[in-house]
Amino acid sequence: MTTIGVLGLQGAVIEHLKQVNALGLNGIIVKKPEQLQEIDGLILPGGESTTMRRLIDQYGFLQPLKHFSKPILGTCAGLVLVAKEIADSDEAHLPLMDIKVKRNAFGRQVESFETELDVKGLGKPLTAVFIRVPYIETAGEGVEVLATYDGYPVAAKQGSILVSAFHPELTGDRRFLAMFVQMVKEMNPAVP
Ligand code: GLN
Fold this sequence. Notes:
It comes from Siminovitchia thermophila. By secondary structure, the protein is α/β, with parallel strands linked by helices.
């Protein structure tokens, strides 16, 4: 069975796990780097990227994640973690995706909101929940933008990495997660 891990250091871990299980997949919480070998794809959840990075260092995840070659879904803080560049910051975290992100991009006064978003490949619009979201300021040539809000990319894909600035785990609509699962299955055709 396809196994999807959720990095369980901080943030919306349980919410993602419930969605993975609801799709009939085997969801596990990844708390040790060795567990990365047991999974077919990894979700980096939303939360607080600076805190998550501190815990990534503390629990020995930095190198294993930098070299993780299976599919990754990064949501919100997870998107910040995989970005090659972060606006107004000297240091990127796992730099895996050719994007420059801006944190808390839609202003602190609008801490959270919901909107109907057209996402490429998903048909009818998705209800997207934004909580202190980053947006993608610039994206490299190899990055496919899947959705924009206010003119800025808020969902994108590059190779085996899928990201969203919004929180797909907070609604009952699992189509964005299903898109990720499809990527995982395409990379592991032998796993039923
Ligand atoms: N602003 C947060 C960060 O940069 C992300 C917010 C979230 O994941 N809801 O870490």
